[in-house]
Design brief:
The chain is α+β, with helices and mostly antiparallel strands. The chain has four helices and 25 strands. 22% of the residues are buried.
Length: 385
Amino acid sequence: MAVSEVVVALGAFLCVARGAAGAAGFIKSPLSQKKLTEDSVELHCEAVGSPIPEIQWWFEGAEPNDTASQLWDGAWQDRVAINATYERHSTSTISIANLTLDDSGTYECRASNDPDRNHLSRSPKVKWIRSQANVIVTERPIITVSKELNEVSNLVMSCNISGAPTEIKGHYWMKGDTEIHADDSSADFTSYTLEKVDHESSGEYDCFFKTSPLSKGTVLVKVAPNVFAPKKSEHGNEKDTGVLICKSSSYPPITNWSWYKMLDWPQPILNGTDGRFFIKSDVNKTELRIMSLDIEKDPGEYRCNGTNEMGEDSAVVSLRVRSRLAALWPFLGIVAEVLVLVTIIFIYEKRRKPDEVPDDDGGTAPLKSNASNHKDQNVRQRNAN
């Protein structure tokens, strides 16, 4: 662990120990920052003590004759916002929006848990403890953005800076949260080329000059909308709810969505039409809900139109409505197949078995007579006499 980290950890430990004993102590102090005009700044402060201390914010301007004044939520024409919580310890965050040069100065976090801290006639026994941060606001540099929007050839985007707050140590370009180019040049000019301009490459591009604080310009690449249906065909059962969806991913966002039923001519559908058609839209998506689907009226093609400042585009979604009994047909088909199969097996087994032949009792042979044995026996008896 570095020496500075040890010192910070020790200081925090001492503050916590001190707070546990009763007196207020800081466990997090606001940090000094450099900002440009029109930016915003946020300062954070935390304190412990028993009872839990109150936190206040004060400001003293950079001019010699400026005096400290307390800040409150909504001050400076509602540019100041203060959020505080008092649970296990005190936390407070102050935010100042749309900074001006006059916002440069010293911002002070004050904490105290003395019962007399806000008394008008008695001074508190324990003075307010204070932690300060300096905010330096410098004039925003002028960044000139040049662009030539041409969907046929390459698009060259460029940014020129004048009045940079500090030395330029490089540049980088961002689209959203993705860095797309970076260099270490100290030039007051940077450019980036789009090989193709379409709905995928349209959007906001930010050019950054590595100064302290960072200087940023924004290039807007605009194209006509690209409207598409994620599913070109939808199915629904009668009496259920049908949902048709269209989307657009191009920039600038869609400013107006509309739906039509395609008959002999496009028939507009308004939100609440017939009490069954409801439209819900945002800048990138529109959704048409059809309640209690009618198998006779609702099937067909529906068209969604999207419009932005560069033009318009549309997509078509087909809707098919099935009978509520349609879900039974597969089951009934399986039952029918089983019945047919059982019948075939039964007939086959019946034909394969031979006819039964009854037994013939008249064909039995007569029993052998013992007459000869008796005759011989009689003969032997006579000889004995």
